[in-house]
Amino acid sequence: MLLKIPWVDRSKCKRESECKAAAVCKQKAFEVQPPSEEEPGLARDCPLVDLERCKQCGECEKACPEHAVKMV
Ligand code: SF4
Questions:
Q1: Which of 22, 27, 32, 60 is least surrounded by Cβ atoms within 10 Å, i.e. has the fewest?
Q2: DSSP structure class, residue 71
């Protein structure tokens, strides 16, 4: 079975510091970037996914309200 991995669509990601996809990931595989000095509540960049930790459960894809996480 071909395992899918989470991909973050930068064109849709809102860079929220309180990333909902990161919040549901039981493996703590989402690395939310440090907060932006200029933009309160936002991170400097989109989250990175640590594929070593990821268990391909797909919960992050369901959790992102912007549909910016895709299992590919
Ligand atoms: S697929 Fe599951 S384990 Fe992997 S980053 Fe998403 S929520 Fe975390």
A1: 27
A2: E
* Domain residue ranges of the chain, discontinuous segments joined by +: 1-72
> Residue 12, by phi and psi: left (phi above 0), alpha (psi -120 to 50) or beta?
alpha
Question: What's the CA gap between 63 and 29, in Å, rounded?
Answer: 14
- The set of protein residues with a Cβ atom below 6 angstroms from ligand 1 is 6, 24-25, 27, 29-30, 49, 54-60
- This prediction has a pTM of 0.84
Count of CB atoms within 10 A of residue 53's CB?
A: 13
Closest CA to 47 of 1, 14, 3, 5: 14
Out of 7, 57, 72, mutate this one to test ligand 1's pocket (max ligand atoms within 8 Å of CB): namely: 57
The architecture of the domain spanning 1-72 is 2-Layer Sandwich (3.30)
